[in-house]
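Researcher: Quick test of sequence recovery. Tokens follow.
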């Protein structure tokens, strides 16, 4: 295992993301020996912390991580804190000098990772100052890491992209979508392209429909302020669900590398045409949770939420892909808060046999084969097939092959952020999103958003917390003579 060399400059070093995700991720790499002597981290934020206090914060963020206190202290010694207002040019000069000093001290070969762990409104000014105050290294690599949300519509996303592109090339920009770091999302490619069994049936000829569910059982919690400006469509559909759709439906990339995969994703996303207002009404449903006994507050009663808010906490929809492979295969998606159970899953429903000669228990139809990928909280897959019922009956009856990823292996596997950090150090952009993928998904989302913003409260469906969402989401499939494979915890 080769040791990586780099200086990390984390803007927002005192924040929640840095403490909960980034420091444990870096430590994970250190614990594995992928980071050793030749790395350093500058954390910058507004608070006037000392290095000593910063080290305590780092160690605190590692409580529960493996390794000795000594090991954690040695790791924390690589961290430097710089009190910094990102809008003030003078601070970048101090930062540049510290970066140059650490580069020498730790022999970092001029490799720099700029991590924007702050509110997006600061990204443009950071990129501008990084360039103008010459923080970019002229040897080694410069990589910029950008968190979601990447814009709130196409126009703002493009503005943001133009701004950061003043200082960084597309190749140097790593846009995070942490769903791409999840084990089962990463399993989509091997499943599709290393198994002829699936590869040859992955089209409209054999697949009836695809269902993507990202269900949460929690409400908005402490993210109310952000959520009121976003809603489920922006928060989950534009990014995570569209990335999953792209992974599921792209053509086979020419090679297993980032440029080929991005090209394949881009091509399929371009075949998802934005809806007209009438199509939005016909194909998308939005909902908002209401509370009650034992299920907590209604969305509109939560702190920092407007009492007449029309922000959606639930979205369901049908997406169609206008190309040869997928023409006529609906992709149904749904995501929401305060649902009956937390579960992220993909159900690929195959077409049933057309000419059934076998006896069946009820009517004459045989059920569809279904391939289910469970992304979380469990991790694994199920394949539901048809077999003979046990005993004297010859009737066809469904059974399921289950594959749960090995829990011990899984416990040893890195967290999504650790994998993303490693990919960043390796210059591997496979698990990051390309600007053109985002642009395509924003065009689709904007068309829906515009209609919903005009409609206001009209068409907003309320659903009870602890259920599977509004009945309109079931009707969306019933209209097509289909139903959700996953009906919720009770019926599963
Ligand atoms: P946070 O509010 O906890 O932290 C923000 C950081 O920015 C703090 O360190 C603060 O001191 C610093 N900051 C604010 N204004 C500053 C200024 N003018 N100059 C210098 N520093 C300043 O936010 P967070 O939850 O850590 O989120 C950071 C980013 O990551 C956001 O873009 C968020 O959308 C994204 N994100 C966060 C999470 C998460 O789990 N927290 C998950 C996904 C994405």
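Model:
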């Amino acid at each position: 295992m080769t040791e990586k060399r780099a200086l990390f400059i984390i803007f927002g070093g005192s924040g929640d993301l840095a403490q909960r995700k980034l420091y444990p991720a870096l430590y994970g790499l250190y614990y594995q020996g992928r980071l050793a002597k030749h790395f350093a981290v500058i954390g910058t934020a507004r608070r006037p912390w000392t290095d000593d206090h910063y080290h305590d914060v780092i160690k605190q963020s590692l409580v529960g991580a493996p390794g000795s206190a000594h090991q954690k202290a040695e790791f924390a010694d690589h961290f430097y804190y710089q009190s910094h207002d990102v809008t003030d040019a003078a601070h970048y000069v101090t930062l540049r000098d510290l970066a140059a000093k650490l580069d020498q001290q730790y022999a970092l070969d001029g490799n720099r990772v700029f991590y924007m762990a702050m509110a997006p409104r600061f990204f443009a000014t950071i990129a501008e100052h990084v360039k103008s105050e010459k923080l970019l290294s002229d040897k080694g690599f410069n990589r910029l890491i950008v968190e979601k949300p990447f814009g709130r519509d196409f126009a703002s996303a493009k503005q943001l992209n133009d701004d950061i592109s003043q200082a960084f090339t597309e190749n140097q920009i790593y846009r995070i979508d942490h769903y791409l770091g999840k084990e089962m999302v990463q399993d989509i490619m091997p499943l599709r392209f290393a198994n002829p069994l699936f590869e040859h049936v992955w089209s409209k000829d054999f697949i009836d429909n695809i269902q993507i569910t990202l269900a949460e059982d929690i409400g908005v919690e402490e993210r109310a302020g952000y959520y009121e400006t976003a809603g489920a469509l922006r928060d989950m559909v534009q990014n995570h669900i569209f990335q999953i759709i792209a992974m599921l439906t792209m053509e086979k990339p020419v090679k297993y590398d980032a440029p080929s995969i991005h090209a394949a994703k881009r091509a399929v996303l371009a075949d998802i045409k934005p809806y007209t207002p009438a199509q939005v009404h016909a194909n998308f449903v939005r909902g908002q949770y209401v509370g009650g006994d034992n299920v907590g507050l209604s969305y509109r009663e939560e702190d920092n939420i407007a009492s007449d808010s029309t922000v959606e906490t639930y979205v369901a929809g049908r997406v169609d892909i206008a190309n040869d492979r997928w023409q006529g295969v609906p992709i149904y998606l749904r995501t929401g808060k305060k649902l009956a159970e937390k579960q992220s899953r993909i159900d690929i429903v195959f077409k049933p046999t057309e000419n059934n000669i076998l006896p069946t228990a009820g009517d004459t139809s045989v059920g569809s084969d279904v391939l289910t990928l469970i992304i979380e909280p469990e991790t694994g897959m199920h394949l539901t097939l048809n077999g003979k019922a046990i005993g004297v009956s010859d009737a066809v009856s469904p059974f399921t092959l289950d594959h749960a990823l090995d829990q011990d292996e899984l416990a040893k596997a890195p967290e999504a952020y650790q994998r993303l950090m490693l990919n960043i150090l390796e210059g591997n952009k496979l698990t990051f999103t390309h600007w053109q993928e985002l642009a395509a998904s924003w065009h689709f989302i904007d068309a829906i958003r515009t209609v919903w913003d005009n409609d206001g409260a009209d068409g907003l469906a309320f659903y009870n917390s602890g259920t599977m969402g509004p009945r309109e989401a079931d009707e969306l499939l019933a209209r097509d003579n289909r139903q959700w494979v996953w009906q919720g915890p009770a019926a599963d």
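The first helix runs from residue 16 to 31.
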